[in-house]
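Quick log. Single chain, no ligands specified.
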Amino acid sequence: MNYSFWEKYFIESPSDITIIGSGIVGVSTAISIKEKLPHLDVKIIERGSQPYGASTKNAGFACFGSVSELLDDFIKMGENPCMEVVHMRWEGLKKLRARLGDQIMEYKNGGGMELFRNGDEQIMDECLGKITFCNEMMADHLGISKCYTEVKNDKVHRLKKEAIFNAYEGTINPVSMMNQLIKKAILLGVHLINGIAVDSIDRTNKKLMCASGLQINYGTLIVCTNGFAAQLLPELPVVPARNQVLMTSPITDLNLTSAYHVDKGYIYFRQYEQRILLGGGRNIDPITESTDEFGNTEIIRKYLLSFLDTIHPGSSDHVVHWWSGILGVGDSKFPVCKWVGDDVLVGVRLGGMGVAIGSYLGDKLASEVAES
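-> predicted structure:
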């Protein structure tokens, strides 16, 4: 790279806080630090022109858990840990909306709808039978009443008529969200530097070793690279997961009013303007999709196109765009928020719920800095 002396000096000079990753966690962390400790100098290093992983590549669901996902997590985690994670998502969404306002990120409170396919009868009956139980958990842990309601699916006729509606969920435009977060961070004095890929962390000398040859000095380092975190810190219990997504051209008779979930959230779709956005399916090819490489594969494309024609016959002919995003997942749904040394803090593994949990995790990371 052809950096001038001035550019190189500025980029390599240590800040009080250096953050790797300008996604929702990285930028939210920077904002919360400047709100709590405005005297600190904060710098964000980002390899892409936009956040690299999933913050601007997700489906824009402002959701915190369908009934099937909750029941699965109850079994795997137990009630209190499961609801602690749900509480993080709930508080994160509240903080995000309070910080930005609904209009700026195109928030629409259309609710979340869990639908069931033919063949899903067993899980459907279990979910319908546990609505009261899940509502009690939401009331006890979040203080919200009648979160889930059994309703009739009158929008997607080739799926089961029985459905579960969550009135507290919605949708956003993720690019509008990130643009406003970045604008807020810059107004607070945060320095955001794009186009720099960090290859490794020299923790002995407190330097970030970059592909361009730059060596960025840091005071306190916060790693917010989610699915890519193991590239820099291989010991972290986080693995990448690719989600593939499609968008159709405008469809005249479309009337999808909610954020829709199927198969424990592994399939999701919504209407954006007059288009269908549909994504997911990584559970049908989990080995291939455990990757930090972007791209689309034939097996997932066929799966999503088939499902698209199920929910709206003939729509596969209207697909105009494909993309993918990289999530950070692991054996636990809890995000990793911890110090991995005296001056290195990490905030990763959002489990595909970055929109919901990102602001909460950013505030928690800022509190860790304030208390250190």
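The longest strand covers residues 319-329.
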